[in-house]
Amino acid sequence: MNGTAAAWDADRRRYDAIIVGAGWSGSLIAERLGAKGWQVLVLEAGNGGDETWEGHLDAVRTFHSAVAKVPNSPYRRNTAAPSPDVLDLAPVRDPEPGKPEFTANGYLVQQGALPYGTDYLRALGGTGMHWLGAVPRMHADDFGTDTDYGYGRDWPIGAEDLQRHYAEAERAMGVAGDADEQRKLGVVTDPDYVYPMHGIPQSHIDDYCQKRVGGHEIHDEVAGETYTINITGLPQARNSTPDPRYAGGAGYRPKGAVGLANYGERCVGNASCVPICPVQARSTPLRIQAGFSGSVTVATRSVVTRVLRGRGAYVRGVEYRTYGDPATPVSRSYTAEADVVVLAAHAIENARLLLFSELANGSDQVGRNLMDHPTMVAWGLTAEADGNIGPFRGPGHTSGWEEFRFGDARGTRAPFRIEIGNWGWGWANGAPMSNVATALGVGGDAAGEVRDKGIFGPELRRFLGSTIGRQLQLQCAVEQAADPENRVTIDPRKHRDAMGNPRPVIAYDLDEHTRKGVYAAYLVAGRIFAEMGAQNRTDFRPVGGLPPLGHFVYPTDDSVDGEVHLAYHGAGHGAGTHVMGADRSTSVVDSHQRTHDHPNLYAVGCGSMPSIGTSNPTVTMAALALRSAERIHQDLAELHGAVLPRPRTQKTEVPA
Amino acid sequence: MITATELHAQGFKPPRTIEELRKYLQAAIEVEHLTIPVYMTGMYTIRPDTNRLAYYAIRSVVLEEMLHLTLAANLLNAVGGKPNVAHPEFVAEYPAKLPFSSDELPLIGLRHFSPKALDTFLTIERPRSLVPPEEGEGWTSIGQFYAAIADGLRALVEEKGEAAVFTGDPARQVGPEDFYNSGGEAFPIAGLKSALTAIEVISEQGEGADDSIWDSDDKFFGEERQLAHYFRFNEIRTGRSYGRHDTPRTPPSGPLLDVTWDDAYKIHGDSKVADYKEYEETSRVYEEAVAFNQCYATLLSYLDSAFDGWPRLMCLAVPTMLELGDRAERLYRNPHPDPALAKKGVCASATFELGVRHFDAAREQVEQNIEAVDRTPGAPIDLSAATMQKREQFA
């Protein structure tokens, strides 16, 4: 059973380790250290509650009643520990040339040329509460792009150093996948490895795409290369059929729901993985927390404000504020001390904390190199003769075209992974609700008058049936390389949140290499649509002076206008803000995610990643966290001499 | 239900031969199933999104009854028998007599979520310790029935040796890969030890372990310990939860539970499809009630194939259960087609009447889908081929 403590119970106590943040990284490290018997305090800024079944149902209901089904929609606004939301951004009508085409009205202060269109969640479980559950590993080539292709930053470690931790992370998270396919891609290298569970079945859309264009050649104009495309299944952290071959024939026992014994279904295609799986088939960090030993204390509504300096280069603990009512910023300050402090609060939050604590920044790299996977979302309508292809069923995506991720073309343009979307044009333009609105004539014309072209009854049903059933969306996630000018800063005099903590100030843009990748993906998606006889509906031109979010104009040599309108979405993959490296003058943390400047301060998470390839970063982040957990255990063991403590059996449960 | 009814009539005694043992185990499957439509009716009549604690408590018991049914089928397969669950006589006619219990007990009927329904549930799950058997008397509780099976099993193994009793093909056992996270998991039965464990799981989830209010999920499955069925139901009935140190003979002493009896679709549990047919012209309830029964027959047909040598076919039963839930939601929210009953606020309900024609009608679809999925043990589950056949259109 998961229990959380009240913040004041943790006040002025001393722990072996304090972990800031209860998302994937924080939970995995706490679980490992707790299993070794260390006294661990996990401080979570946001609300708890979802570890109970009532709390889970409440989140599901909040999501059901939300008008905009955005990733943060199951969770209520929290003034004390605000989260950025994708709805914070709005386009500007008829923007002035050279000025930003968007406004940002949320937690993030955005001062860059382009919007950082990515959210995260500050709550127990972190952004792991609303993630899709996509867990493809990174490829060996992704770790050395500077050396091999002349862009981005190299890692101080390689894929081979992470294989063991990847496998461990996949067990902890509960991953379903086809190892043979991943071996073929070259991302799984162990010849005997199988995932804990068989892959989630591919969707009807996947089958359709493979039937229509599998084995076809698609030309990438930008790279000047031709690729033969075939779909590859996506490894996913959601319950499917356990594979009896796992772990040398030992098999795997899927983990059930958190908060209700007797529950925990396999994926049955509820199709709302983002933001919430109603049957908890999709894994969340709460599952890890359910396995915390008695020596781990979790305190929610505890916002860490600063890391406290100790003797010499060491840190001694943290200062944190706790609040009772998330609607008000009323809070009280406490401190807790520990031998090791681990920041696991998300790339942007980690950077914000380090900057405000004035720590670990000898390299001036803290907050820099902010990355994401800018995602070019293309949409098309498949041939009417092919009938209904079955959108809005199953997980968000179950297969992709991986061919554009690898090879020498990376030197020319950023690589990208094409996700075959299962949820129609949902991401591109809010389908199916937008289709209904359009058909009904809701929304009015440009002058605000009611349109009289609405259709009703059987005609409406036929219209929706024929158009919604043929929606195909291709989500092209483009690698963005580390760029020191894409950064998080703070400006405590001007920008603070309600509790008084500095808000993150973001400067964000896409460099030429990345833009070229977006452009290449745009052309490739168009060719794929053409090859399968679909109408390409992708169009990023401003409508009535209103540009789409993430809009930019890309100059081309060959088109009539000499330019093309492009746009991208944020993928929710914030990374790079406390970048890892061997050289302390150019990086913030070492390969174990320990800060170069402070021997007992760790900053973990995607913030440590020097590059993110074209893989959804969570599983790599989890592998890094498990690697760090081993290191932290060693640190603590050395500090305490040779005598290792035994795990306590009794669990301290103090209800909040 | 005929096997169970027949054995009940013979009075309390343990099985003495393998044939008798198989008969007892088929009866056990029937008894486990008998409870499912009763609990389902209690659960489905809760208005959506109300009485959530009660809803999930009943749901958890239904899942565990399905586990018991599966374990009983494993037991029967283990001793060389052949479970039969897709048969009109397998299903009881409600209101039904509860076998292996006192003849004085009232009939078990389909009732909407209400104190009376909970009283019925409590009657079914009453622990042995609350109704001690009297010398030379008839049956008093289902726990006693299982104790008789365990005694018979032990005696047979002593007499003939384990190998002569457990002659079933191990490939017919439903294991954890096909049934999990449902108040424990199914496990294969290979000998006396696992057989007795299965009987213990069934008894203790129902009536509690060692004369306590708790079941033994922690001991057998490394899961969270839960209240045994009787006490889970008693919490709802009394509107109060049990405290940590309560015992079977003390009333629950914990905090109040939120139970609102009015948030239920009132039904006339004795309604039959024939009653609905009279109003076929004015109400679609008839069609929906028939479709529900048809769906239930399909579910039993899949279970029958899963217990008959292809455990992996459990995967086809799961979407059918989801369909059943959807159909229930569509059915129970309608007024009863009889205007006189509707006026009193009575709603339509599922009748769980299954005849030969239901199983015949299910056969074609069942056989088609069985062919469409890969049923090799350990293979990935992919129902795409089965779902493709339906191709329902929007308009």
Structure description:
The complex is a heterodimer of chains A (656) and B (395). Chain A is 23% helix and 18% strand. Chain A has 2 domains: 1-88 and 108-199 and 235-369 and 484-510 and 575-656, FAD/NAD(P)-binding domain; 201-228 and 375-479 and 511-567, Cholesterol Oxidase, domain 2 (2-Layer Sandwich). In chain A, strands 1, 2, 9, 10, 11, 12 and 22 form a 7-stranded mixed β-sheet that branches. Chain A has a 6-stranded antiparallel β-sheet with strand order 8-14-15-16-13-19. A 3-stranded mixed β-sheet of chain A has the order 5-18-17. Chain A contains 15 helices and 22 strands. Chain A has helices at 7-10, 24-35, 53-65, 145-149, 159-173, 179-185, 204-213, 246-249, 285-289, 347-357, 426-429, 433-440, 457-468, 512-531, 618-639; strands spanning 14-20, 40-43, 89-91, 102-104, 109-110, 216-220, 225-229, 231-233, 296-299, 302-309, 315-323, 331-343, 375-381, 397-401, 416-421, 471-478, 487-490, 504-507, 535-536, 551-555, 563-567, 601-603. By secondary structure, chain A is of the alpha+beta class. In chain A, helix 5 (159-173) crosses helix 15 (618-639). The model of chain B has no long low-confidence stretch (mean pLDDT 90). Helix content of chain B is 51%, strand content 0%. Chain B folds into 2 domains: 1-261, Ferritin, core subunit, four-helix bundle (Ferritin, Up-down Bundle), CATH 1.20.1260.10; 265-390, no CATH class. Chain B is built from 15 helices and no strands. Chain B has 395 residues and is mainly α. Chain B starts with a helix and ends in a 7-residue tail after the last helix. Chains A and B meet through helix 3 and helix 13 of A and helix 3 and helix 12 of B.
